[in-house]
Amino acid sequence: MMRLMTWHGGDKFTLDQVPDPVAPPGGVVVKIDTVGVCGTDVHITQGLFPSTPPKVLGHEGSGIIVEVGEGIDRSRIGDRVVMNGTSHCGVCAACRTWSISRCENADPTSGMFAQYATAPSQSALKIPDELDLELAAMTEPASCCLSGAEMMDIPVGAVGVVIGGGIMGLFTLAFLKRRGVETMIMSEPVAARREMARQFGADLLHDPANGDLIEFVKDHNGGYGANIAAEAVGKPELVARCVELVRPRGQVLMIGVVPEGAPLPVDLYDMHYREITLKGAFGRGNVFARTIEEIGKLNLDGVISGRYELQDVPRAIVDSGEGKGVKFVIKPNG
Ligand SMILES: [Zn+2]
Ligand SMILES: [Zn+2]
Questions:
Q1: Which tens digits make up the pLDDT trace of 197-242?
Q2: Distance 324 CA to ligand 1 centre (A)
Q3: Residue 137 Cα, ligand 1 centroid: separation in angstroms?
Q4: Which residues, in sequence order, are CB contacts of 97 under 8 Å at separation 6+?
């Protein structure tokens, strides 16, 4: 028997005992080492992101393959892996024209707030020996940010701003910097998060309590707005802020998950006149596998703010939603 945490809508969860999972044909069973609590898990329990209970949440997991199904070589047993949430066929319209993370024929990995998960073998990606299993669980959130950062054109000498110093903002900042943005600014009210942006490559830190962000950017960019502004909180008014604070032909990146049905509170004439580009970035795009090596190049010291046992998933989700730490993780097998 194994234990898993089932979500029943709102903030209701039960810790359940179920039979040990069996590897499906073409799939594997992974004993979970670490699974991250995602902002999406917080939004689901707050009714801000559509999801249908009952369900086992958790989609940012790493672990070790302990069993393989029909058709999968037994040499995979013992592989240290990070799990992709869905598989891809590579040939459907979504795979060819949108991204493989939107595959129309995708098989899901099972919910990871559990001691074991089942996944298509393709979705359990081996990680390098030198990458820590706990940090490997950051692959999913990091991949969403890498996918978004790669949507941006980076002019020479570019100035970029990220609003929000949670894990998504930090990864977005790191990947924009690594792609060649010369000056990266982090705007974040919580001092500990703001300071952490330094190790991800921030050149300048802005505290919203200490003056207007638009003025701050102009002061550091010869009177002009930023070339790129990324919103990593999920608030429509902050997306609007990003539109205001980019210079003509500036690009705005939406990393934060805004509530369903939210309108965009901006002056469309201004967007049109100043030729602003607004891009949404949701999910892992085509970069999940490549992200594994990218996170190995980052300094992730101190990123994990709390570790919880499986029975404490509800508390971890509440703590995560308070926005004080950076990343909270569950250790389902202790
Ligand atoms: Zn996530
Ligand atoms: Zn497909």
A1: 999 999 999 999 999 999 999 999 999 999 999 999 999 999 999 9
A2: 18
A3: 10
A4: none
Q: What pLDDT sits at residue 278?
A: 98
CA 130–ligand 1 middle distance (angstroms): 23
Give the number of the ligand closest to the Cα of residue 84: 1
Cβ(225)–Cβ(14) below 8 Å = no
Which bound ligand lies closest to the C-alpha atom of 57?
1
Rounded to whole angstroms, how far apart are CA atoms 8 and 16?
A: 12
Residues found in the chain:
334
> Is the whole model's pTM more than 0.90, yes or no?
yes
Which bound ligand lies closest to the C-alpha atom of 49?
1
| pLDDT at position 328 | 97
Burial category of 141 from C-beta neighbours within 10 Å (exposed 0-12, middle 13-18, buried 19 and up): buried
Q: Cα(134) to centroid of ligand 1, in Å?
A: 15
The residue ranges of the chain whose pLDDT is under 50 are none
Structural contact between residues 205 and 193, judged by C-beta atoms closer than 8 angstroms: no
In this predicted structure, what is the pLDDT of residue 48? 85
Domains of the chain: 2-138+303-330 (3.90.180.10), 144-280 (3.40.50.720)
